[in-house]
Design a protein that fits this description.
The structure is a single chain. The protein is an alpha/beta fold. It folds into 4 domains: 97 residues, 2-Layer Sandwich (Alpha-Beta Plaits), CATH 3.30.70; 107 residues, Fumarate Reductase Iron-sulfur Protein, Chain B, domain 2, CATH 1.10.1060; 158 residues, FAD/NAD(P)-binding domain; 151 residues, FAD/NAD(P)-binding domain (3-Layer(bba) Sandwich). The chain has 21 helices and 20 strands. It has a 5-stranded parallel β-sheet, sandwiched between helices. It has a 5-stranded parallel β-sheet with strand order 11-18-12-13-14. A 3-stranded antiparallel β-sheet has the order 2-3-5. Strand 15 and strand 16 form a beta hairpin. The longest helix has 19 residues.
């Protein structure tokens, strides 16, 4: 049945009777397109990131991504820009509609006369055209009803603050099947993330496997470049997400959580079948690995698959390195570490626990007994502020406390605590001690402070937000000056306002306003200003032959081989610190060791 509106609709045309008609005086030469006409392309090359979604969506293959001068690849930008062939273009504007940054648009110019057909292939924004400054034409419409992909993340379920602030149970709950597939549908498969990932994981490919509900294939893709998917799916620093092309117009994909979803859905007992590792032919050569952190485990995995006998020498009683002994269980449950480790052990890798290389066995002996050695020993030493009073027994290092907490040891927990540091480790100890305070006293009295202002704190933003949700106070932008000690007891921390961290040369040189002072009351101070490496296992004889780089790091080549040919090194002592760099280092070193031993 027609409505009154439908009946009256034809009569609305009468309003145009009294309008002045549009007349083009020179229709041969002057034929302007409508304001939103789809004419020749324009591109803001400074905004374009070369993601290639325009090329992918063009069914006529009218767009090619090409390299251009003065645009070098970098994180978040491929360095390529689209070149349009107007012999193929059908002016549909799908390339504009799908553009993730909004850099690509179309002018309303549609006439172009030229005798050279090659001129009808050009790079918008690079090859200057008459219509470059024309503001009219087709642009991607705004609004949620005109999007080729969702701009908002699917929210991950997590425990509310009151459910987690006195417990170490895992707070992030993981995606359901429906949530994972909905989030995966947002991916445009541009691959900008893969280029930025230190391990160069096949991110678009494993996200596609989620869309296809083929999680076994997804696991195989993960293991191509990352043998610690359960771990990495929880604590990866997700550099990939910081460059996600969807993030230019909306929220970046939850790449880390999608990785975790694949690993969570594949039971460990099926790993060997899925990954086809029931039989690995051995080549008769042996490799020693020092440390079972991410770099050591990654190297062990890939070396074992290449046929080597691999033995890991671990100083502590369990595998995992800083992943187990430096990251709280509410972020990384230990059974998930075990799931990844146990698969690597199933490949025939052996771990010798409670073996301190340099004391229980020398590096020289490992060099003699094995065909090559890989060291991925991590950063297990804390750093002190060395301010007055920092040598008091109630001034602690965060690394030491986190290790004791993860080992289940009882630690001193004061009623009032001050944490110095603004990185993720500082937030880990802040949130761990806040939980222990809540358990012991029923409330939290903890202040975390740092030199950096909140905008420049190196900790992930989510860590800072969650620390505050768990009743810790985060008060950044202060430089520690002195630990107040009265009658032999710690009373708090004197600080002054920090104005800047670096001088004009880029050197670390904090500048402070000494007139703006503050005092943070506390019975216990925890320093968390960075970690140091322990290279004491390397004897002086070997050190004499090692080429050293800046900041006391050992120099390595692209295969992570040192100047001592049989010794390879990777992980946080070489690059990082973070888990994904360690994984990438271990993989690359494994391939390098293989090349070294076969004489390439």
């Amino acid at each position: 049945m027609s409505s009154i509106k439908d009946i009256l609709m034809p009569f609305t045309a009468w309003k145009n009777v009294f309008k002045e008609p549009v007349t083009i005086k020179d229709p041969i030469n002057d034929r302007p397109g409508a304001a939103r006409y789809r004419g020749f392309h324009k591109n803001d090359v400074s905004t374009c990131i070369g993601c290639g979604t325009c090329e992918s969506i063009c069914e006529n293959e009218a767009i090619d991504m090409v390299a251009i001068a003065n645009f070098e690849p970098k994180d978040g930008d491929s360095g390529l820009r689209p070149k349009v062939d107007y012999g193929r273009c059908c002016w549909c504007a799908l390339c504009v509609d799908v553009c993730t940054t909004g850099s690509l648009s179309m002018s309303n110019e549609y006439t172009w006369v030229d005798t050279d057909p090659e001129n009808f292939r050009f790079i918008p924004g690079v090859d200057e055209k008459n219509w470059d400054k024309n503001e009219l034409g087709w642009k991607k419409p705004e609004g949620d009803d005109y999007q080729f992909y969702g701009l908002e993340r699917v929210k991950m379920g997590e425990l509310h603050p009151e459910e987690r602030d006195d417990s170490f149970i895992e707070m992030i709950q993981g995606f359901s099947k429906e949530q994972a597939e909905k989030e995966a549908d947002r991916c445009v498969e541009c691959g900008i993330c893969t280029a930025t990932c230190p391990a160069h994981m096949g991110i678009p490919e494993y996200i596609k496997a989620i869309r296809n509900d083929d999680l076994e294939e997804g696991l195989r893709i993960l293991y191509d470049t990352n043998p610690l998917p359960e771990i990495c799916g929880r604590i990866c620093t997700h550099k990939c997400e910081s460059v996600c092309s969807i993030g230019h117009r909306g929220e970046p994909l939850s790449i880390r959580w999608l990785k975790r979803y694949i690993a969570d859905q594949n039971p460990s007992e099926k790993y060997k079948t899925i990954l086809e590792t029931d039989f690995i032919e051995k080549n008769g050569k042996k490799i020693a690995i020092i440390g079972s952190g991410p770099a050591g485990l990654s190297a062990a995995h890939y070396l074992a698959k290449l046929g080597y006998e691999v033995e890991i020498f671990e100083k502590l009683a369990q595998a995992g390195g800083m992943m187990r002994f430096g990251i709280p269980e509410y972020r990384l449950p230990y059974d998930q570490i075990d799931k990844d480790v146990n698969y690597i052990l199933s490949l025939g890798v052996k771990i010798h626990y409670n073996v301190n290389v340099g004391a229980d066995i020398t590096l020289e002996k490992l060099g003699n007994d094995f065909d090559a050695v890989f060291a991925g020993t991590g950063l297990h030493l804390g750093r002190s502020t060395r301010i007055e009073g920092s040598d008091h027994e109630n001034v602690y290092q965060s690394i030491e406390l986190l290790r004791k907490i993860t080992q289940g040891e009882e630690i001193h927990v004061a009623e009032k605590i001050v944490v110095i540091g603004g990185g993720n480790v500082a937030m880990d100890i802040t949130r761990s001690l806040a939980r222990l305070q809540n358990q012991k006293y029923g409330n939290v009295q903890l202040i975390a402070t740092s030199l950096e202002t909140e905008e420049k704190m190196p900790a992930d933003r989510e860590e800072v937000v969650e620390a505050r949700e768990e009743k810790a106070t985060v008060n950044p932008g202060w430089a520690p000056q002195k630990v107040e000690i009265v009658d032999g007891k710690v009373k708090g921390l004197h600080v002054v306002q920090c104005l800047s961290l670096f001088d004009e040369t880029g050197a670390f040189n904090p500048q402070c306003n000494m007139e703006n002072k503050n005092f943070f009351e506390g019975d216990m101070i925890v320093e968390s200003i960075g970690q140091g490496m322990d290279l004491s296992y390397i004897s002086e004889d070997i050190k004499e032959n090692l080429e050293m780089g800046p900041r006391g790091r050992v120099k390595v080549n692209n295969d992570f081989q040192t100047s001592v040919p049989w010794l390879f090194m990777g992980g946080d002592t070489i690059q990082g610190p973070d888990v994904i760099h360690g994984i990438a280092n271990g993989h690359r070193a494994a391939l390098g060791i293989d090349r070294f031993l076969i004489g390439e």
